Amino acid sequence: MKEREQTDGFRALSRLELYVTIVGTILGLLFTWSQLRIARSEEARAQRAEPLSYMLQAVDTHYVYELAVDGSEQTIAAPSLRLQVTHGSLHAVTAISYDGEELYQMATLPIQDDWKGCGVDITLPAQAIEQEGDTVYDYFFLYLEPVEGDAQLDLICNAISVEKQAVASHIMHRIDLVRLESQPQGAQREMLEVYAKLSDRLAELGLLSS
After folding, report:
1. Strand 166-172 with 152-161, pairing
2. What SS3 class is residue 204?
3. pLDDT tens figures, 134-175
4. What's the domain range around 24?
5. Which string of DSSP letters, residue by residue, matches 126-137?
6. 73-77, 92-96, 194-198: lowest mean pLDDT where?
7. N or C: which end of the chain has fewer CB within 10 A?
8. Among residues 147, 148, 154, 139, which one has the least CA distance to residue 202?
9. Residues 156, 159, 165, CA angle at the centre, nearest 5°?
């Protein structure tokens, strides 16, 4: 009888130990899962807080530049630009074609939940154009709204070399406006003046920081 009571006691103790082990394992898994969620949340928050950075890659498009040079017409393939976020987190982006007097086009590009590793093509017909020597400048603006932080306005310029039949794309940021006063008269100064004018207008509307 005594041995049976001891056996029952051992069984009860074993069941209790098993129960404690199972509960401890479950609690440990829940704790680990919660820590992983916190870590991922902190990582996502840190990524959103990073300054926005992106790159533009030229890709084929369906339209061409038609240029009049020395009384004859020339055509050069115009690039479409693929925007890809490299740092930070982008909420929305709007392409603006504006020459300081006329707003030709304003297109908000499709919003994606996660821009990391994704690209979006930007194709705007050439409308804001400046020419200097044998170089023609086709330009537009990108108004970028990050998930966190201030919006930014960048000038995107396609420099078209008539002689070389080539197009090179450049990104200008608001810091480039410091060159405006020392920039000689010409196409690049005119683009910077339009850039400054649009920046001031968006700042007046509360869409850009002053």
Report:
1. antiparallel
2. helix
3. 888 888 999 998 888 889 999 998 888 878 878 888 899 999
4. 1-49
5. S-SEEEETTEEE
6. 73-77
7. N
8. 154
9. 140
